[in-house]
Amino acid sequence: MKISTKGRYALRVLADIAEHGTDKNVSIREMAERQEISDKYLEGIVARLSAAGFVKSGRGKYGGYRLTREPKDYNVYEILNAAEDSIALVACLEDDADICPRADSCLTMPLWTHLQHRFRECMEEISLQDVMDRKFSV
Hints:
Keywords: DNA-binding. The protein is mainly α.
């Protein structure tokens, strides 16, 4: 699985809103400038985040976006799941995949299922606040 720019940018956008939107809405233009992402591409990402209920919008002179929860209440899995078309490690585990006719006899299916489960658990343990606090090192 390769996390696309949509997923990476969704994390950056939510972190940007969390950082700059504590007392005001954050506009697409402001985020686009800070994150060096085109307004148009950012609109598509924010639309996905809004549809998932992660951000709410305000209109008018002080319009823009705000988080619907505290950063500690978002996890990386749900953010990537909202932004990406799929976060399955292999195609046969995708939500919309037809059941593989070999699933019952496939020797590797339990491995992929196990790895997918562990990957999801790991991502669910990391909050947006953890990302903002840079709690990770190599």
